[in-house]
Each structure stands twice: as C-alpha cells, then as structure tokens.
C-alpha cells in the first residue's frame, strides 16, 4: 500500500510524476475538473452574494469515488493540479470532496515535470491559495452571469444554439470592425520610380527619393513625368555613401501568446492545436531508456523570465556547440507586458541538452516541430546579437536623387539558430551593393515607373488576432485558444484563406449585443475586468464586490433587453437551383463550417450540398466540366472537376485559364513562402506573379 496519494489532472502527467516519486506514492488523475457549475442552469444565486452552486460533473462520479477510496487509505494527500488559477480551483474542489483540510500543506506546484523539479516541489508543499481560487471563481461566475442571461435571449429572439460571452463577443466585434474598415477603405494612387544601375560590372537597384534635396511624393503619373523630364542622360554621380554597423538583439523566450502567434506563422498551426501539442510536451514524453520526461515548462504563462539555472545551461550548450563568441555576455532585460502576472517562467525546454535532433524519434511530426520551435527560441534568446554591415548610397543626376540600400550579415549571432517570423511571411535576405565612394559614377540601365494603390488593413489571422487581444488586455493566456474555437463553432466567423471573416449571423448577434449590452463589447471595460480579476488574485479585491459592481448595471440592461429586443428572422437565401432529389428550391444555410446548401423542404427532404466556387477554368482532363474549389475532410482547399465522380481530376494547386507555353499542359498558381508563382503542372516552366 502506498503511504501518499498524489492527484493530478491527466493520466499522462500521472504516469510521468509516478516514475519520479517512487513506490510510496500513488499518483491518480482527476481528468480535469470533477466539480463545476451545472450545464443545465446558471448555477449562481444572485440573491445570496452570488454563491455558486457546484455539482459533481456528469460522468465524473466513478472517478471521484475511486479518488475517495484511495484517499481513505493514504496517510497524506497532495493536490498537484496545474500551477494556475484553474489548477488551484481544481485542488480546492478536490479538498472539499475528499475532506482535506484546505489550510493544511496539501498543495504542490511545479513549473516543469522533471525529476529534480518534482522532488523539490514535494519538499515545499503549501496551503491552497484562496486568492487564486477566488479569481477563478469570479471569472466563472462572471461568465455565467453574462452567458446564461444573454444566450437564452438570443435563442428566443434569433435562433437556438447561440451564445454570448465577455471575451468572445469582443473578439467577434474586432473581426466585424475590421471588415467594416476594409469595406469603407478608399484606395489612393501613388507611384514609385525604381532604377537598375551598373557599376564596375556589378548590378544593383535604387529608388527615387527627392529632387534638389527635397522629398517628393509621387501621387500621379504626371508627377512621375515631371521627375523623368529633369533627368539628364543615364549617368549618376555617387553623392553620399553611409556605412554603419547595426546590432540586432535576440527575441525573448515564448509566452503563451507569442508561441501561438509564431506557431501559426511558421508551422501553420491553429491556436487550439498549438496548446494541445504543448500540453503533451509539458506532461511528458517517453524517451526510451531515459523514461518519461516533461520536455517543456508550463505552457500557460505571460512571463518572458528564465531561471538562472536554465540560462547557465543554455550558455554552456552555446559555448560547446557554437563557440564562446556566440554567448550573450550582457544581461538580457526582459520587458513584461503591462498585464503580465509573471507567475511562471517563459515557455522553454526543461533541458537544453535534449535538443530537437536527439528526441525526434520519440515525437510525432507535429510534436517535434513545436518542440524545435520552443527549443530554438529559448537558446537563441541567450545568444549574442547579430551584427550587420549596412550601406546607404545616394545617386544624383541633375538634382534627382535615387537611394540604394544594402546590408550584409557580418556575424550571425542568435540568427544562426533562430529568426523570428513575421505576418507577411517575407524572409530577410542579404542585399549587397558594390563598393562605392563619393564622386564615383554609375550608369542607369533601366528606369521604371510603377503605379501602386494603398491597401486596406488586412483581415485578422489567428496570430494577428491573438496579438491584438493581448495588446488590448482582452483575455489571458488560457483564454485565447478556446475563444477563437468558440466563435467559429457558433458560426459567428469563418476562416477564408487563413483570415477571419464575419458571417451574417455574427453581425446580427453583435448588433443586438451592441444595442442592449454595450459594456460587454467595450474593449476598455473588458480589459478592466481582467485587471480586476488580477487584483482578486493578488488579494487586493474581494470577488463578491467586483461581481456585484458589474451585475448591478448589467441586471438593468437585461430587463430592458427582455422587454425591448425584437425577434430577428434569418431568412434562408435562395441558392438559385432546385433539389435533385425532390425538386424543391435549394437554400443557403449556416453550419458549423460556414455556409452550405440544403433543401427548403427540410425535414421531409434532408438533401445537402457543399457550396463550390467555379474558378473559371475548363477541366483539363475531360474538357467538358468546369474546375471548382472544394474542401477536404480536414478543411484543406483543393480543386476538382464539377463532373465528379464521372471525372476524377483533382489538383492541390489552383489551375488558371492559360496553358504552358512550353508543353501546353495546365498552368497552376503555386503558393510558397515568397509569394505566388505560376508554374506548369507537368514541366519545369515557372514565372513570377505579383
């Protein structure tokens, strides 16, 4: 019989910890929360200081029974749920259910699941932190008061199955507001003049900047013609050469938000997938002879801080594998965000020695890709700055100035291991200029004017939306992924080309919330609520007082909405074709994955069809059908013939209405990290496309 019982959330975590603690410890999993508010009702008594009504979660009875039986046999019980508000709440509920004195030292927390960290944490058990519990309880009660009061209104006035929440409503508003900006955007014309120069047999490029030392904006073709008239011949004088050394500092280790953003940019992972994989890496991976090891520290954090032990281990690794010159000898100051709680370290590998190559065979492809990203980012954060030689050259012809800029990586520093991604996907490249001195001459081979138009702000990608929410103080590390998942499942937004677009349903719901509950959509109000929750966690605010101040005004708005909110009928939009099964009209419906076609004679006829987009190209195989855009079971876009299954043509790349000039086969648009290329589907023909 084991002397001690340790309770964690998951079997994977239990398995890892059990190996470190030995036979005296029995480690069991609660499978997350065992106690929670009921799903069938609000579960909050607003007349009794907002007292929550907790029940055993349906299906968790046998688990709780098993834990109670194990608890009776144990001399001591340790509650080792995750080191955050939610983990503290799980521990508190378990303490009540198992009759554990919550003032006893029964709570154990650790930021990483390694042998040393686990053993150290069990030497320093503590009491349950009621400030953390109250902060989590306040969030649950607050979200219930909002969701379980507004949602039934939406069911009654719009349609069943809708929901409204504090953070999700603001996220939808951000997406809709961005769409309004895009629709209202008026493009403005502007021009640029680029020139290709040659000096001493070397080619380089430069752009027009000014006339007679004054910057000149080119807003029309007439402006361009005026500049070109001034030019005298094609010989330019080198007027000014500036050379300098620029240092580029490494980026800090990941927070939850920055990990989700970078995984989206570099690995094309959704936020939900990133957090699922990170949880697996944190809880432990079987590394063969080494046993089960937690590979990363806790993945819900807003801190960029690293322990001295982690820094020293990283520096030893860097010196051994890259050289002493690659170590950053300066103290790296990590600037925390205004809203950061700094409760944990940044997300990092538990041991730098376990490099991605050494553990690759034990990980799935996606686990390895995410671990590699985390490992490289942390190691790079402790490396020396990169040093670049930059050069700026002004070339002048009759007072008209063109400027050429170039840079060369002199010392890679941290860039040898890792370079941060960006939202446009462009990679940095060396742009070298020939050696030039003031007074030299260069010849312009080509001078090309180019017309441009200003572009509207881009739609939000998952990475950009998470970043903006974090900057505005909306939500916290644990809320980003579930929020983005919820607004898509509810059909309020959809993803098109990895960008969020609002649906008609989303716009209708938002309009109603905006009219009757404007504070829910107020970014400053939502951010203040997060700050108040943090104050509860710090012990500076009472949770009942914070909830009471909110509900007092909210209750008035709720009564007004119940009386004045009008019913909204969402009419099915005709699809313009008849059902092939019963002959009735087909209509557009909104489902979990966006719009689809369904028979208007539902439920008598249950015929449905996916909406396909014609790309304007004849099928290259059967020559009869048209190529249409479709989606695979994993929601990946592909192209096929609309005569399927009679014609089985498919292509992952988008066909275009031209044939290859070399072999006359189909040309396709190929998406790469550098942009879109047009290339032949059969031969090596390829062309650039803007």
Give the structure's gist in a few sentences.
The protein has 690 residues and is of the alpha+beta class. The protein has a six-stranded antiparallel barrel with strand order 8-9-15-14-11-16.
Largest sheet data: 6 strands, antiparallel, barrel
- Rg computed from alpha carbons, rounded to a whole number of angstroms: 30 Å
- Note poorly predicted spans: 335-342
The average pLDDT is 89
Distance between the termini: 70 Å
- Give the proportion of residues in helices: 25-40%
Number of helices: 18
Strands of the biggest beta sheet: in what spatial order? 8-9-15-14-11-16
Q: How many runs of DSSP E, i.e. beta strands?
A: 30
Rough outline: globular
Tell me the fraction of residues in β-strands, as a range.
15-25%
Structural class: alpha+beta
Which helices and strands, and how do they pair?
Elements: E1 4-8, H1 11-21, E2 25-29, E3 35-36, E4 44-45, E5 51-52, E6 55-56, H2 61-73, E7 76-79, H3 85-97, H4 115-123, H5 130-157, H6 166-184, E8 189-199, E9 202-211, E10 214-215, H7 221-230, E11 235-248, H8 256-267, H9 271-283, E12 285-286, E13 292-293, H10 308-321, H11 356-359, H12 365-381, E14 386-397, E15 400-411, E16 441-453, H13 462-472, H14 480-489, E17 493-496, E18 499-502, H15 504-516, H16 518-521, H17 523-537, H18 543-564, E19 573-578, E20 585-591, E21 594-599, E22 608-609, E23 613-618, E24 626-631, E25 637-641, E26 650-651, E27 654-659, E28 666-672, E29 675-680, E30 686-688
Parallel strand pairs: 1-2, 1-7
Antiparallel strand pairs: 3-6, 4-5, 8-9, 8-16, 9-10, 9-15, 11-14, 11-16, 12-13, 14-15, 17-18, 19-20, 20-21, 21-22, 23-24, 24-25, 25-26, 27-28, 28-29, 29-30
């Amino acid at each position: 019989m084991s002397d001690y019982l340790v309770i964690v959330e998951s079997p994977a975590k239990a398995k890892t910890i059990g190996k470190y603690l030995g036979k005296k410890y029995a480690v069991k999993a609660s499978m997350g929360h065992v106690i929670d508010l009921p799903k069938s009702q609000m579960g909050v008594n607003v007349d009794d200081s907002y007292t929550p009504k907790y029940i055993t979660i349906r299906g968790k009875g046998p688990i709780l029974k098993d834990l109670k039986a194990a608890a009776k046999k144990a001399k001591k019980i340790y509650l080792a749920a995750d080191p955050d508000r939610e983990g503290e709440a799980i521990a508190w509920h378990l303490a009540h259910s198992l009759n554990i004195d919550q003032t006893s030292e029964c709570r154990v927390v650790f930021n990483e699941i390694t042998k040393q960290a686990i053993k150290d944490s069990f030497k320093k058990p503590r009491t349950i932190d009621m400030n953390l519990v109250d902060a989590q309880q306040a969030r649950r009660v607050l979200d219930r008061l909002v969701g379980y009061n507004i949602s039934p209104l939406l069911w009654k006035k719009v349609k069943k199955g809708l929901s409204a929440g504090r953070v999700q409503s603001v996220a939808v508003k951000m997406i809709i507001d961005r769409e309004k900006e895009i629709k209202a955007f008026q493009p403005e014309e502007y021009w640029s003049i680029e020139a290709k120069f040659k000096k001493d047999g070397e080619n380089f490029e430069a752009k027009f900047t000014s006339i007679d030392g004054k910057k000149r904006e080119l807003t029309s073709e007439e402006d361009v013609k005026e500049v070109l008239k001034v030019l005298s011949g094609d010989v330019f004088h080198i007027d000014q050469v500036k050379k300098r050394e620029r240092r580029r500092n490494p980026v800090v280790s990941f927070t939850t938000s920055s990990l989700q953003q970078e995984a989206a940019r570099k690995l094309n992972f959704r936020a939900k997938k990133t957090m699922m994989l990170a949880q697996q890496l944190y809880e432990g991976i079987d590394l063969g002879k080494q046993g089960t090891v937690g590979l990363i520290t806790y993945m819900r954090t807003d801190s960029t801080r690293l322990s001295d032990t982690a820094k020293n281990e990283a520096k030893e690794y860097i010196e051994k594998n890259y050289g002493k010159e690659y170590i950053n000898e300066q103290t790296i100051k990590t600037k925390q965000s205004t809203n950061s709680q700094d409760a944990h370290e940044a997300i990092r590998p538990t041991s730098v020695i376990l490099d991605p190559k050494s553990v690759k065979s034990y990980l799935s492809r996606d686990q390895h890709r995410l671990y590699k990203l985390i490992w490289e980012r942390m190691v790079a954060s402790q490396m020396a700055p990169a040093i670049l030689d930059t050069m700026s050259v002004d070339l002048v012809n009759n007072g008209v100035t063109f400027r050429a800029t170039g840079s060369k990586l002199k010392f890679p520093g941290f860039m040898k291991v890792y370079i941060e991604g960006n939202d446009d996907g462009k990679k940095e490249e060396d742009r070298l200029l020939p050696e030039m001195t003031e007074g030299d001459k260069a010849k312009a081979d080509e001078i090309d004017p180019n017309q441009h138009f200003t572009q509207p702000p881009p739609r939000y990608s998952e990475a950009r939306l998470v970043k903006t929410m974090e900057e505005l103080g909306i939500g916290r590390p644990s809320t980003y992924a579930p929020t983005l998942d919820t607004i898509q499942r509810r059909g309020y937004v959809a993803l098109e080309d990895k960008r969020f677009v609002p649906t008609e349903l989303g716009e209708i719901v938002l309009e109603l919330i905006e009219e009757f509950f404007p504070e829910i959509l107020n970014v400053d109000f939502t951010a203040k609520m997060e700050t108040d929750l943090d104050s509860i966690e710090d012990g500076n605010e009472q949770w009942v007082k914070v909830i009471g101040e909110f509900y007092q005004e909210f209750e008035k708005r709720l009564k007004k909405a119940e009386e004045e909110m009008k019913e909204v009928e969402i009419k099915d939009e005709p699809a313009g074709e008849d059902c092939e099964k019963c002959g009735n009209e087909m209509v557009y419906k909104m489902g979990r994955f966006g719009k689809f076609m369904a028979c208007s004679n539902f439920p008598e006829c249950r015929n449905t069809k996916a909406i396909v987009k014609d790309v304007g190209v004849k099928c290259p195989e059967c020559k009869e059908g048209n190529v249409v855009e479709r989606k695979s079971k994993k929601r990946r876009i592909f192209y096929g013939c609309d005569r399927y299954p009679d014609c089985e043509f498919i292509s992952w790349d988008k066909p275009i209405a031209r044939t290859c000039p070399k072999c006359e086969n189909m040309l396709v648009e190929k998406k790469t990290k550098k942009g879109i290329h047009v290339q032949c589907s059969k031969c090596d023909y390829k062309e650039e496309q803007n």
